[in-house]
Amino acid sequence: MTTTPVTLLTGFLGSGKTTLVNRLLTEQVGQRIAVVVNEFGELGIDAALIASRDGDDVVELANGCVCCAGRGDLVKAVETLVSSGRDLDHVLVEGSGMADPGPVVESLVGPPLSERLAYTGTVTCVDAANFDANLEHAEAAYNQLTHADLLIINKADLVTPEVLELIGQGLRRLNAAAAQVTTVRCAVPAESVLTPMPAADHRAPATHGPESHTMIGVTVGAAGELDAERLRTWLAGLPRSVVRAKGIVYLAGSDTPRVVQVVSGAVELGELPAGSTVRPGRSALVLIGTGLDEDRLRRGFTACVA
To answer: Which region is the signal sequence (predicted)?
Structure first.
């Protein structure tokens, strides 16, 4: 039976996984690549931010981490893809920022998927600008580093060469077998990600459980167009406990929706990737962090309506 190569993409919240997926889809024209997206929270954002292309399949697993509540959905989604008769060249599984990769790999290399897939390795995106803070936030961030076969040290333009060297040294102590590459906006050759990795280790980490998932996701939405300046002010003033925020908003005076990205306090309102599909509708954000006041966040977002 012919097997389909599968690669797991991991990395803590805001490290650049979706940027990497879009680069791979753009560079690998002519290949049929299926992307399985996992979201942390009830609102699917990442699938909308992936540039669609004729022949591509995007399967979104919303509301839960693939290594826990959504693990059965992951197996089902991937099995459906590879059993559908589609002539796929590769499957990319983009885990949520809070996913422990060990149990995910265990699902990909074990039955029933082992007969259909050829696991090529785990790629972890590393946020150089928030490296220390991310390790302090969650055990999952640590597990993502130790289980990687390729470490993409992203956002290199936001730190000094000295900091990059220290990060590289720290990663070698954590995971000496993994290859390292330093990037800006995940600009890495596709073959580095899609070809089998010599260091690939199929073992799952020994520790895994609810203690890895101390963060929660809060969804906020508004029916009307938003005032851009008011929105920027509100985003910039979010409590430090908000580690990540992302979403799609409709701004007054603009004909196209904008993508909101907040990573550890840094705010960006950008354009949608070319070819992405977004249904017209409400502005909505997912905010991820610890000890979040849901009512206060929803009131603040609603106050941004123009």
So the answer is: none
Whether 183 and 168 have beta carbons less than 8 Å apart is answered as no
* 3-state secondary structure at position 229: helix
Which H, E and C letters describe 199-212, residue by residue?
CCCCCCCCCCCHHH
pTM equals 0.75
Domain with CATH 3.40.50.300 in the chain: 4-211
Helical (H) or strand (E) element with 232: helix 228-236
Considering only CA atoms, give the Rg of the chain: 19
Is residue 203 scored above 50 in pLDDT? no
Are the C-beta atoms of residues 254 and 265 closer than 8 Å to each other? Answer: no
- Beta strands 242-249 and 283-289, pairing class: antiparallel
Q: Is the pLDDT reported for residue 64 higher than 70?
A: no
pLDDT tens per residue across span 118-144: 999 999 999 999 998 888 777 888 999
68-117 pLDDT per residue, tens: 545 668 888 888 888 888 888 999 999 888 888 988 898 898 888 988 99
Amino acid at 129: A
**CA–CA distance, 229 with 211 (Å, rounded to integer):** 38
44 neighbors 130 (Cβ within 8 angstroms) = no
Tell me the three state secondary structure of residue 120.
strand
Chain segment 215-261, per-residue pLDDT in tens: 788 889 998 899 999 999 999 999 988 888 988 999 998 888 899 98
Does the pLDDT value for residue 201 go beyond 90? no
Report in angstroms the alpha-carbon separations of 70 from 6, 76, 82, 113.
18, 10, 19, 16
Q: What is the residue-wise DSSP string for 254-271?
A: -SS-EEEEEETTEEEEEP
First to last CA, the chain: 58
All CATH 3.30.1220.10 domain ranges in the chain, comma separated: 215-302
- Domain with residues 215-302, CATH architecture: 2-Layer Sandwich (3.30)
